[in-house]
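As the work plan foresaw, our protein records have gained a structure token line. A representative record is set out beneath this paragraph:
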Amino acid sequence: MILDPTGHPTTPRGFRAALHTCGIKVSGTPDLALLLSETPARWDAVFTTNAVAAAPVVFGRERLATGRTLSAILVNSGNANAVTGPQGLADSRETATLLESTLHLAEGAVLVSSTGVIGVPLPMDKIRSGIPAIAPKPMSEGGADFARGIMTTDTRPKHASVSFPYAGGEIRLGGCAKGSGMIHPRMATMLSYLTTDATLHPDVLRKAFRRAVDASFNRISVDGDTSTNDTCVLMANGAAGLPEILPGTEDAEMFEKALALLTGFLAREIVRDGEGATTVVRLDVVRARDDEQAERVARAICNSPLVKCAIHGRDPNWGRILCAAGYAGAGVMPESVDLSIQDVPVLRRGTPLSFDAPKLSEAMNGLEVRIRLDLGAGLCETTFWTCDFSAEYVSINADYTT
């Protein structure tokens, strides 16, 4: 199984993509991205759990419920089409219908996504002129451009591919993601589009996809904010021409591992590109009573502004970590807890340990900080990824619309 960080959504056979500038972004950078499957694809998607869901999310849920195949995804950046009332939903529907007509696709074969500023109507005049312009452009090598076109405050595109041998041939998976702020997915602004040329039984597709998302995108946090537009999609078009992967087989397990490898890489890339981030934090919560306790504690720590500021200052202030674990509402017993930072024990069974604070601070002065919290309560564990808070994060978000 091979992970290629230069791969992208059109690395799998039978997918094409294109990028266009239609003037949504005032910067004049590309803002309309198209991902196209040459044959109708089986698909699944997960969306934000935010009650204030953007129009394309509402529209996407409607499309998913029909059970139809998917042929294309159109993403506009620079405008979230969120909190735009009935007109916003009508605009999403019109966008999909226009693309279906232009590309001669079946009704219901197009999904749309949006990312950008909330509360601003989608400039449909620009969308209407942009679709006929982008429709002839999709190419098999356009996946990297697609990844670039969905960015907003990202500093770089995030894409990769995974391949593994199967039935005398090769299965390929590709994908990309955008997001660096308003990141605390709970599928529950993060977007991710995944592709594969495998022929997947619907049960294999859904099971592998949902597990991969839960173990990756649902285990990261930049700032604790869950976007109105969070969307993750997997398309499987069968273009490899290999036998269908069936439930309960070793082949299904292999595909699930490949998809987990891809989503895990993309999720960590989002954290590394967190707005203003200088350090990535890996948090392992181990020996939890159950999965719920592990997740509650991990989320509380990764979302704590005080913990994230301490990380930015290279301050081994372990009290902030323990404090967050305590208010997580997960029944943590402090007298049972062990804690280490950068593999240096700082707490054992709730009792502080002596350690060289200046030396540990120096050890935290790198690209990644590791925190291990042992709850001493059971056998369950989880790993979350987050990043530090810097003054640049505040600056980016203070001036976002002005």
